[in-house]
Automatic annotation (TrEMBL):
PANTHER family per the UniProt record, alphabetical: ENOYL-COA DELTA ISOMERASE 2, PTHR43684
Organism: Janthinobacterium kumbetense
Name assigned to this protein: Enoyl-CoA hydratase
Gene3D superfamilies listed in its UniProt record: 2-enoyl-CoA Hydratase, Chain A, domain 1 (3.90.226.10)
SUPFAM superfamilies registered for this protein in UniProt: ClpP/crotonase
């Protein structure tokens, strides 16, 4: 199973389990994640959610083979009922606390999704990147707004425009993660934090989360709509075509030919 879903003592754990492909996420994996989050919303036995990967890698982001086959319908628009949209809506709309445990690289949407979690813990081997411009694309799912709010414009511009990888220590300084712990402690620590949430009054946790997030919800949805429109247009553009062709041909893309 590429996504392992397990429930124990009030914690629903969703684990990326496709190590042979660096936990790259397919449409089927997004659907499993979306269905699990939707079901958790009405499951009284779930009081906290934990998202994790493997020690070596959190996720390499979208599986590009799968992405290119399913990303664009024939009319060129983005299908907002695609599993990735279902997953992200379920994630940022979850009323229950979501904890993330990140070890190894978190690439693309692997970093984006963390901005929609409540508590994010990183191992000291974790790294983060949002290489959208390197693919001829733009930020996704509110990251252009949320990262700017977290880190300030200059730092967000550096990360989103250059798309370069940065370490856990910098993610902590930026406010992207809550705490950095040694790799061997990560899962025990994250599970312990989730267990603390389980032990607290569920209604109080939900109310606190709603109050903290409500002021940014409408701006975030507006940002997501703008991003989706641009992302869809750019996905069909010459620069993205060159980026993806170069990726599959294992060569460096040549963007100098475009203005």
């Amino acid at each position: 199973m590429d996504i392992v879903c397990s429930k124990s003592e009030g914690i629903l754990t969703l684990e990326f389990n496709r190590l042979e492909r660096k936990n790259a996420i397919t449409g089927a994996m997004y659907q499993t994640l979306a269905d699990a989050l939707v079901a958790a919303e009405t499951d009284d036995d779930v009081r906290a959610i934990l998202i994790c990967g493997k020690r070596e890698i959190f996720t390499a982001g979208n599986d590009l083979d799968d992405f290119m086959k399913t990303a664009r319908p024939k009319d060129g628009s983005l299908d907002h009922d695609r599993p990735v949209f279902q997953f992200m809506r379920a994630l940022y709309g979850s009323s229950k606390p979501v904890v993330a445990a990140v070890s190894g690289p978190a690439i693309g949407i692997g970093t984006t999704l963390l901005m929609h979690c409540d508590l994010v813990y990183a191992a000291d081997n974790a790294s983060f990147s949002m290489p959208f411009t390197q693919l001829g694309l733009c930020p996704e799912f509110g990251s252009s707004l949320l990262l700017t709010q977290l880190a300030g414009y200059p730092r967000a511009a550096e990360k989103l425009m250059l798309g370069e990888s940065f370490p856990a220590s910098e993610a902590l300084e930026m406010g992207l993660v809550s705490k950095v712990v040694p790799l061997y402690e990560l899962m025990t620590f994250a599970q312990g934090q989730a267990a603390k949430l389980v032990a607290l009054p569920a209604a109080s946790i939900r109310a606190t989360k709603r109050l903290m997030k409500q002021s940014r919800m409408e701006p975030m949805k507006a940002a997501i709509a703008d991003e989706n429109k641009l992302f869809s247009a750019m996905l069909g553009g010459a620069e993205a075509k060159e980026a993806f062709t170069a990726f599959f041909q294992k060569r460096k893309p040549d963007f100098k030919q475009f203005n």
